[in-house]
Amino acid sequence: MSTALGSVSTATGDYLSTHSEANDVITNAGAMPTGEGENAIRAYFVAHPQEWADLQAIAQPLRTLREQCDVDVAPAQIARLFDAMAS
């Protein structure tokens, strides 16, 4: 799981560093109330379907891990891991 998370995180960071508009939308959404942030991200990617497809391809190793190993790779769990490592 750690290898898949590391690979996906690195590839996502690399992708977003070359797609500044998507990066800005995602970054700014973090400061918005939950529903507003999600709506802003959704609206951006509805208008930019190729970028969404690119990020879905990057995330494929996590979906594969979930399907093959019955491992729940949920954002809340990943956030808790990062919180634990940062304390």
From TrEMBL:
Domain Haemophore haem-binding as annotated: residue spans: 4-70
UniProt xrefs under InterPro entries: MHB (IPR032407), MHB_sf (IPR038378)
Origin: domain of life: Bacteria
Membrane-spanning parts: none
Gene Ontology terms for molecular function: heme binding
NCBIfam families: MTB_hemophore
Name of the protein in question: Haemophore haem-binding domain-containing protein
The organism of origin for this protein: Mycolicibacterium pulveris (Mycobacterium pulveris)
